[in-house]
Amino acid sequence: MLGWEFPPFFAGGAGIVCNELTRALNRTGADVTFIMPSGPEEIYENLNIDEPGKPRFRILIANNIYPGKPTKVYKVDSLLQAYTTSEQYEHTYNRHMQKRKGKHGALYGRNLKEEVMRFAEKAREIALMEDFDVIHAHDWTTFLAGIEIKKATGKPLVVQVHITEFDKTGGDHADPFIYSIEKRGMDESDRIITVSNKLKDTCINRYFADPAKIRVVHNAATTMRSKEDYDGAHIKAGDKVVLFAGRVTLQKGPDYFVYAAKKVLDQAPNTKFVIAGNGDMLPQVINLVADLGLSKNFIFTGFYTREEGEKLFSLADVFVMPSVSEPFGLVPYEAQIKRTPTIISKQSGISEVLRHALKVDFWDVDEMAHKILALLHYSSLHNELKHNGYEEARNATWDVPAGKCLGIYNEIIGRGEI
Amino acid sequence: MKMVKICFYFQVHQPHRLKKYSIFSIGKDNDYFDHKKNKEVMHKITRKNYIPMNNLLLHLIKKHKGKFKVSFSITGTAMEQFEEYAPEVLESFKELARTDCVEFLNETYHHSLSYLYSKEEFKEQLEMHRKMIKKHFKQEPKVFRNTELVFSNELAKYVEDLGYKGIIAEGADHILQGRNPGHVYRAVSTEKIKVLLKNYKLSDDIAFRFSNKGWEEHPLTAEKYATWINSHNGTSELINLFMDYETFGEHQWEDTGIFTFMKQLPEELLKHPDNSFVTVSEAVMQHEPRDVIDNHNFTSWADIERDLTAWLGNSLQNSAKQELYNMEKHVKKTRNKELINTWRKMTTSDHFYYMCTKWFNDGDVHKYFNPYESPYEAFITFMNVLNDFSRRIQRKKPAEEQIIVNDTPSIILAQ
Question: Which residue from B405, B402, B403 is spatially nearest to B385, judged by alpha carbons?
């Protein structure tokens, strides 16, 4: 398994998915060797993913995948991190080199292209010492590594796409370097996994990927840490709370949330709106709230930790995910598991699988406001969604996507190429 | 040796679907129904189902010279939409009525579950429906069928007291307890009224399984089906085949061969000289109850559970129906025909059916003509309409009698 982030060090959904998927695969008895790059200042000593004593299950479908050993994590020193652009990389690189005051013993390459290739080389070396049946690479930063290992070992390659350059840039400003690696990964793979049908379409339409190679494996619900509920009564002070949680960026549609809030407040003035998260659009959103005269109804939390997030989901009466583009979008599951009804954008991958959520087009702020009001106003609607949403998220376990992955491994192992 | 009589009864129903009605429309828009959608659906079904099937039945009745008979239950809401959007369908049913081989049952005009919440409303809707049948088809119905075949001992008794000779119910396993649906039964606590029970196996072979390629009996031919019915000779008096009329051409498309099947079926069955067809009232008149059935709890013909959970299984449905029926006396007090009529259109059971959330197992059937993306949307629309409607009634009432449709009093919508 090739990934670039793994909890507790992660920047987004793909790290969570790697964690959950690896553990679920491991639970089925599959042996997973996870190779990831790491930043120079990160510490992995406390990372314990062995989970000894957990019951093991025999693999039924993929008997070529040998059972037995627990998950291993190798770290390839790297500056490669999630959501890195060439520009950001150079900045990080320079800062890092300043700190090290020119001690040039380290491995890190001068630019992103070099770094991705270095990771590929390093990962290949590790792989040559390992015994395995399938290469599974997550997102573009690891695709070159996947391709290198496939070349060196002849093992089949699965690339998993969590997001593409088109989703990150909101359309037509894809970085040609990243695009070319994404495309190569898809072209040279034996199977492509996408986390939604929507993303499958992007792979076909933008990367001209072979539809026959693509398998859609929807994500499941994140495992929550705390079981306790948090009512946040002192924050709410008797008012209802509507929550936005995520990066405050164009992709997540925070401005649509504010426009919808305006319409809600016209009808139900005693409602509080919380925007949790950080991002480049935050100053703009704060200004918008002020311009619309809504400041007294808004709370901005800034960056929040996992634990704080769980509290927010617990106390909120409604969670809204108005994303403009969301290849999957795990967050609604986190709200549902905390028994908070959700309103999600139809432009999200998760809307393909979520039944017990209200759905809106992200641009339709009238409809968004209408649904927020309905949830605040009709208690039986709120109760029904709370209950059914909770059950839905609780039943969305990672055993399902892990099972699908095993099926896909089996398809390509069974082709006799090994 | 007893020979079987085949009793076909077809349910014809279309609801007045609500249009998308936002919270922001409350107080501003009095028109709740989706005329465009209702018209489209009516035109589509007219073309695919009503006209071709009515023509086929007419042809069969003429061909078999009175030996082929069927019964219908047509709701008032369907009739209203025939009159408005498809008068040719109404004419065609009238023509069927004139053959004397077609009988019409009595049910609640608005296809409602009013029996469960308001006996008064229930009686009024039966009366409206009876008058409508008489006006259009010149018949006096003697047999009652309740919406979705909702049935219980108590209901049978109530309907008996209203003077009906017969009532229709689902031949559910727990009612029959191993007995044969091919006889007439009597419900506990009733004296005369006869119960006709649906043979769900043979009915569903046509209504649900006909085009299922995974079914071991597929393809089902009229000849094969006739042998199944003939095999009941000697053990059954009646084969009650009750189903939605939309089965023919809509649930089962024309290309499945459903029309050909129905075209050949009477001939196949009448090949056996002792077989015959009867209408529901003939079935009731010609047979005496064989045994007593005891159905304390309500049953219906819906889903695998055969109970009321498709309409009243969750808090959305319960809350919506409660708010609706709480309004009844206020609505009626206005004596405003238009308001009462609008309220009644809201009693149609489909509105509650759309709010059903247990769609993982039975979802397929629930999707037919469902105008909503989800049960939650159905609830929101219904409640928004009810909110506006209650405001209109309040304007016609003195202040001390004000009613509020609002299950969360803490949030008051701005007027």
Answer: B405
Torsion angle (degrees, nearest 10) of CA B50, B54, B57, B63: -150
Which band of pLDDT confidence, cut at 50, 70 and 90, is reported for residue B250? confident
pLDDT tens profile A381-399 = 999 999 999 999 999 999 9
Query: Which chain A residues touch B379 with a CB distance below 8 Å?
Result: 378, 380-381, 384
Q: Pairing state of beta strands A191-194 and B184-187?
A: unpaired
**Domains along chain A?**
13-220+398-413 (3.40.50.2000), 233-395 (3.40.50.2000)
Using 50, 70 and 90 to split pLDDT, how confident is the model at B63? Answer: very high
> CATH class for domain B5-293?
alpha beta
> For an interface test with B, which of A381, A392, A395 has the most B Cβ atoms less than 10 Å from its Cβ?
A381
Residue A276, both tokens: 């949790």
Paired strand residues for B198:
B170
Contact indicator for A380, B357 with CB cutoff of 8 Å: no
For chain A, list residues whose CB is within 8 angstroms of any CB belonging to chain B: 240, 263, 266-268, 270, 355-356, 358-359, 366-367, 369-371, 373-374, 376-385, 388
User: Residue A274: helix, strand or coil by DSSP?
Assistant: strand
d(CA B324, CA A75): 64
Answer yes or no: B148 catalytic.
Answer: yes
ipTM above 0.90, yes or no: no
The half-sphere exposure of A272 on its side-chain side, counting CA atoms within 13 A, is 19
Characterize the bridge pairing of strands B238-244 and B5-12. Answer: parallel
In chain A, whose CA is at the least distance from the CA of B412?
Answer: A268
Task: Note the pLDDT tens digit of each residue in A119-177.
Answer: 788 788 777 877 788 999 998 988 999 999 999 999 999 999 999 988 877 666 778 88
Considering the entire predicted model, what is its pTM?
0.84
Q: What is the pLDDT of residue B307?
A: 77
At residue B107, the 3 state secondary structure works out as coil
Cβ(B246)–Cβ(B204) under 8 Å? no
